[in-house]
């Protein structure tokens, strides 16, 4: 059990897992973690997710989560735009980039906030006292692989496919089928990896694998349904 209550060795008071100082006698319970180290956390997300999640939850200040949310939204905008290609192609978008970005930021934030609130409610019923910001931070950092696609894969797509990536006359699948499928394959790997990290975070905090799989699958379906619906709306306003 990764985030069980912490019992003070001095006074036996039971503290929430994120506490580093006993609420009763003020004794130290563990080493203090003030801020999230961005690069160390990204490294640990890859090498040791459990240790990474522990540091994220124990950190007093959840720095970088707004920054990461913003870039998740940019990635979501690209995915939603890709979903819109069959209907809109290159020239069918009428919404400005700024308005599209603002709308997708709202959608992205709503998705992560809603999922984090649901998690907090579920864990509370299991007497696991974590805060909303703990869940939000873990969820945003779990999308680190998703952002790898934005930083490393999308620039390659632009170089190789150019404007054809958003063209439906013809599709990029018809122009350069092999490279298109390879790039999409890498994109899918980053997406699956990210949701697997969310699944892992739910499991290690103290829930069954079956429930964790159901919860993660529900979030996955909700996430992409929201992006698909967004693709029908935000580019045509």
How would you characterize the overall build of this protein?
- It is a single chain.
- By secondary structure, the protein is an all-alpha fold.
- The protein folds into two domains: 1-32, no CATH class; 35-233, no CATH class.
- It contains nine helices and two strands, in the order ββααααααααα.
- It has helices at residues 38-47, 49-58, 65-88, 97-125, 132-142, 144-161, 172-175, 177-206, 209-233, and strands at 6-7, 14-15.
- Strands 1-2 form a two-stranded antiparallel sheet.
- A hairpin with a 6-residue loop joins strand 1 and strand 2.
- Helix 1 (38-47) packs antiparallel against helix 2 (49-58), helix 2 (49-58) runs antiparallel to helix 5 (132-142) and helix 3 packs across helix 5.
- It is elongated, with a radius of gyration of 20 Å.
- The N and C termini lie far apart (48 Å).
In sequence order, what are the helices and strands, one letter per element?
EEHHHHHHHHH
This entry's quaternary arrangement is single chain
Task: Summarize model confidence as the mean pLDDT.
Answer: 89
Helical percent range?
55-70%
Report the principal-axis shape: elongated
Number of strands: 2
- Unreliable spans are none
Largest sheet: 2 strands, antiparallel
What distance separates the N and C termini? 48 Å
- Strand content is under 5%
Number of helices: 9
Q: Nearest-angstrom radius of gyration?
A: 20 Å
Structural class designation: mainly alpha
| Integer tally of domains | 2
How are the strands ordered across the major sheet? 1-2
């Amino acid at each position: 059990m990764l985030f069980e209550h912490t019992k003070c060795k001095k006074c036996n008071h039971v503290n929430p897992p994120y506490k580093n100082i006993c609420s009763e006698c003020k004794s130290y319970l563990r080493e203090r973690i003030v801020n999230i180290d961005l690069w160390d956390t990204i490294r640990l997300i890859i090498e040791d997710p459990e240790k990474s999640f522990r540091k994220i939850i124990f950190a007093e200040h959840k720095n970088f989560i707004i920054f990461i949310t913003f870039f998740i939204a940019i990635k979501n905008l690209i995915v939603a735009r890709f979903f819109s290609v069959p209907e809109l192609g290159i020239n069918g978008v009428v919404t400005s980039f700024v308005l599209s970005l603002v709308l997708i930021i709202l959608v992205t934030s709503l998705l992560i906030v809603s999922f984090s609130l649901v998690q907090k409610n579920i864990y509370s019923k299991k007497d696991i006292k974590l805060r909303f910001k703990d869940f939000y931070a873990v969820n945003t950092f779990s999308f680190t692989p998703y952002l790898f696609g934005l930083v490393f894969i999308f620039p390659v797509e632009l170089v190789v496919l150019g404007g054809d990536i958003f063209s439906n006359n013809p599709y990029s699948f018809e122009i350069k089928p092999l490279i298109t499928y390879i790039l999409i394959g890498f994109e899918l790997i980053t997406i699956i990896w990210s949701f697997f990290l969310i699944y892992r975070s739910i499991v290690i905090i103290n829930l069954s694998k079956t429930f964790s799989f159901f919860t993660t699958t529900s979030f996955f379906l909700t996430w992409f349904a929201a992006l698909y619906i967004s693709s029908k709306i935000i580019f045509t306003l």
